[in-house]
Design goal:
By secondary structure, the chain is an alpha+beta fold. The protein has helices at about 30-40, 70-75, 80-90, and strands spanning about 15-25, 45-55, 60-65, 95-105. The protein is built from three helices and four strands, in the order E-H-E-E-H-H-E. Helix 1 packs antiparallel against helix 3 (about 80-90). It is globular and about 40 Å long.
């Protein structure tokens, strides 16, 4: 499941999880798991949308949007997501940073 380039979001406030990562070499099941996590996240209460990109050098940023901190915590604790996190630590990421923020304002230019 490939998300649309831009998430369709409500007016703020809402929350965002910013996941920046450097991949290890090779796929080793990563793409299938990433697709599954997008599919699963979209089924979670409080999920608003996702935007993601990855360069040829393996550096990527995924930004997911949520209604509340509680929705983010429930997603973090989801059993299948926890398994993906463990595999990411062991197999797919050389380095990652995760940041959670509240979006107070949002602006856009639409074509």
């Amino acid at each position: 499941m490939t998300p649309a380039p831009f998430a369709e979001l409500p007016e703020p406030p809402y929350y965002t999880v910013i996941f920046s990562s450097q991949r290890t070499a090779g796929d080793a099941g990563y793409e299938a798991m990433a697709d599954r996590m997008v599919e699963l996240a979209a089924q979670q209460a409080g999920f608003l949308g996702i935007e993601s990109t990855r360069g040829d050098d393996g550096f990527g940023i995924t930004v997911s949007y949520w209604e509340s901190i509680e929705a983010i915590a429930a997603w973090k604790a989801h059993a299948e997501h926890r398994d993906a996190q463990a595999q990411g630590n062991a197999r797919w990421y050389a380095h990652f940073e995760l940041r959670i923020a509240r979006v107070e304002r949002a602006y856009s230019k639409r074509c």
